[in-house]
Every structure is written in structure tokens, then in C-alpha cells.
Design goal:
This protein is of the alpha/beta class. The protein has ten helices and 13 strands. The two termini are 37 Å apart.
Length: 340
């Protein structure tokens, strides 16, 4: 449903679809979208896909969005899960049941260390999240620990890439896109950010980080935000790696913490196939009802990553997939080459 403001803009009501057990219930928020100039927000998944394919991608390339052509920006991206139990001080031996995931995570850490990035961008479903806004963590530094999971001694002190954050904010403002550093509610690092860092910091202690939350906006807007991120990285001239943090379905086993739903295994199968084939457009074919029934966690994170690779040939490698705990853990690597 929508209404019109006096200035000719459209008010569209969007409810965050993220499951309450992941982020807590979120209220309806008003999203103001000016007509024209690619700012129409659809209310259905089918329209979202048309918005992306017919407007976002084509019109960006016709505008100044990629003026001068895209240069190599993000060095690589990695799809990773974030189960706290994978940390030995938290799992206390239970982490051994996901040994394949641990092995793949170690490989990811090795690959990132070899790339020697200046900045590691992490998109996390457990960072600050709004229904109508992408939150970028502000400030220069951030602390965090696994104290909420019984392991306060496993802690982190990270430095944020303020320059890259400002570049993203500037581009977002220029494009009338809802992203920025406003609305910080909890500056402490979340486990969606710290689990990847736990593996990485054992192999690579250099480089700043940038933490970005997801939103309740349509998948097409997550894809679009990925493009903004890629452009900001390109303009910065920095070596950047993107970590798309997110578990898969939480409903894979009857004995799992969230039970079983037939959509759970179907989601894991589809998402791993899509990522293996780098068929990123298909990420928009997952409708919201299916995603909710599957109780996924990281889909929007993966869509941001896909948007960051728009127009680029991507080589993917599936490193692992496990479902033994009732929650899906998938790890893939993505490296890009020439423009399509």
C-alpha cells in the first residue's frame, strides 16, 4: 500500500521480514521514495526483480553510476556462516561436529591473508538493522567479545575504515539512497562480525574493518547497495575484501534448535547451487514467504555481495556445506575477472 506526499513523493509501507528470533520484531516504517530516477520501490518480489533487471542495472550503466567504466575494486568475497559454537571457548568440544566448516573457514582466512587487504568489509544480519535504512557502523574503533556466549575472554578491538564509510555515505546521499551512519544503537561488535574475525585475525592482523547491517528493504535495494559499495571501493583505490556473513536455513533437522520445515533443505540446496554457478540474478527469485518459512539468516547479505559484483565475471568455489546441527553453514569463495 502507498500514499502520496504533498511534494509528489510516494510513501510505501514496508515491514521488515527478518525473523523475530534473529533480530527481534520490527515495526512498520515509512519509506519516502521520489518518483522517477530509479527510486520506485516495489511491493512484490516479482516487481523487485523487474526493478533490478530493467531499471537498476540498465539505468546505472546509462547514468554516471559507472562513468568511465568500472575498474577492479573488491578483490574477492566470501560467503561464511557465524555459529558462536565454532569458537572452542564457546563450543567446548561441540564445534568438532562441524569440522568441515572449520577447515573451510581456515582456508578462507588463509586466502584473505594472502590478499593482504587494506580493509575487510563485513555485512552482518546481527549488526544494527532498520526496516528502511542500511546502517554503517560509525566511529573509529569498536570492541566486542563472546561474553554473551559464556566466553568473555575471546575479545576484539578493531579499527574502522572511516574514509571508506564516508565515501559510501557520500555516494548514498548523492543517489538519494537510504544508507549511512545514523541510528547507532549498539556499538559492540556482533557475533556475525566476530566469528569471521576470529578465524581471520589468527592469520592476518593488518587491515581495518567496516561493519554494515542489512535492512528490511526489498532484495533489489540490497543489490543496489552492493553496487554503491563497489563504486566507493573503486574510488578509494584500496585493496578490499568483502565477507558476506550469514547462516543458511535454521530449519534443517527435527532435532535442531528451530525444528524442521521442508523449505529448509530446499533453501540450502538452491542457495548453494546459485552461488556455485554465480547465478546472482536468481538470488532475487527467492520470494519472501519462502525465505521466512526456511528461516534463513544471510540471504540479504549474499544479495549485497552479488550487487558488488554486478557486470563482472565471477569465479566461485564451494568450500563446504554442513547441516548437522539443524542450521545450514555454507562457505564459498568468489573472485572476479573481466567485465561482462
Amino acid at each position: 500500500m502507498s500514499d502520496r506526499n504533498a511534494d509528489g513523493s510516494v510513501i510505501i509501507w514496508i515491514r521488515c521480514l527478518e525473523l523475530s528470533f534473529l533480530t527481534g520484531p520490527m515495526p512498520f516504517r515509512r519509506l519516502h521514495s521520489k518518483l522517477g530516477k530509479n527510486r520506485w520501490k516495489s511491493e512484490t518480489v516479482e516487481r523487485d526483480r523487474l526493478f533490478l533487471r530493467k531499471l537498476s542495472v540498465i539505468n546505472y550503466k546509462d547514468s554516471n553510476y559507472l562513468k568511465g567504466g568500472r575498474k577492479m575494486s573488491i578483490l574477492a568475497a566470501f560467503m561464511v556462516p557465524h555459529p558462536p559454537m565454532i569458537i572452542p571457548e564457546v563450543g567446548k568440544g561441540n564445534e568438532n561436529q562441524i569440522s568441515d566448516t572449520i577447515k573451510a573457514y581456515e582456508q578462507v582466512a588463509d586466502e584473505i591473508a594472502n590478499l593482504k587487504p587494506d580493509t575487510i568489509v563485513i555485512t552482518s544480519p546481527h549488526s544494527v538493522m532498520y526496516a528502511d535504512y542500511f546502517h554503517i557502523s560509525p566511529g573509529t574503533d569498536a570492541l566486542g567479545s563472546f561474553g554473551h556466549f559464556g566466553a568473555p575472554d575471546v575479545s576484539f578491538c578493531e579499527h574502522y575504515d572511516v574514509d571508506l564509510a564516508e565515501r559510501i555515505c557520500t555516494l548514498a546521499e548523492e543517489m538519494d539512497f537510504p544508507a549511512g551512519t545514523l541510528g547507532e544503537r549498539d556499538p559492540e561488535l556482533d557475533h556475525g562480525t566476530m566469528v569471521p574475525l576470529w578465524f581471520l585475525r589468527k592469520k592476518y592482523t593488518e587491515g581495518k574493518i567496516l561493519r554494515i547491517g542489512l535492512s528490511g528493504l526489498p532484495l533489489s535495494e540490497h543489490y543496489r547497495f552492493g553496487g554503491i559499495l563497489a563504486r566507493a571501493v573503486q574510488e578509494s583505490g584500496k585493496r578490499v575484501v568483502l565477507i558476506a556473513s550469514g547462516d543458511l536455513s535454521h530449519k534443517l533437522q527435527t532435532y535442531g534448535p528451530y525444528g524442521y520445515a521442508e523449505e529448509g533443505p530446499e533453501y540450502d540446496k538452491r542457495i548453494m547451487e546459485v552461488c556455485a554457478a554465480t547465478d546472482f540474478g536468481a538470488l532475487l527469485d527467492f520470494n519472501s514467504d519462502f525465505l521466512e518459512k526456511a528461516a534463513e539468516c544471510g540471504h540479504r547479505s549474499f544479495v549485497i555481495m552479488a550487487g558488488a559484483f554486478d557486470g563482472i565475471n565471477v569465479k566461485a568455489k564451494v568450500l563446504s556445506h554442513q547441516d548437522v546441527t539443524g542450521v545450514g553453514y555454507g562457505i564459498c569463495s568468489f573472485y572476479h575477472g573481466e567485465k561482462k
